[in-house]
Task: inverse folding
């Protein structure tokens, strides 16, 4: 059996980032968080329909959890959101960008009926 080279035995570390790169990443993350918070307030107030977001999510929502977004919809609590996700065969940890077309379509159809 050939000897294991040292390159395979060392764990791969994340690349070092400069202070500027870290600050830019932090700024992007803060921007995404504030935009999501505003969107959730708009959903709660009825100014933004959930169907539009599910069918055509903006970039800053691609990595948001579907569960968290549905919780912001009026009259939807944890129990009802879990029931809806179970009916559509969607994991509670699924992100908006990770939804298949089938899941997206079933979810929108179900929410429009309610």
Result:
């Amino acid at each position: 059996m050939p000897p294991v080279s040292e390159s395979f035995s060392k764990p791969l570390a994340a690349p070092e980032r400069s202070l500027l790169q870290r600050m830019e990443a932090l700024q992007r993350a803060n921007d995404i968080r504030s935009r999501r918070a505003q969107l959730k307030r708009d959903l709660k107030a009825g100014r933004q329909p959930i169907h539009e977001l599910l069918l055509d999510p903006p970039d800053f929502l691609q990595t948001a959890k579907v569960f968290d977004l549905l919780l912001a919809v009026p009259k939807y609590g944890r129990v009802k959101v879990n029931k809806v996700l179970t009916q559509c065969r969607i994991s509670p940890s699924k992100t908006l960008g990770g939804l298949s077309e089938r899941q997206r379509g079933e979810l929108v159809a179900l929410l429009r009926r309610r």
Observations:
- The chain has six helices and no strands.
- The chain has a mean pLDDT of 90.
- The radius of gyration is 20 Å.
- The chain has one domain: 19-113.
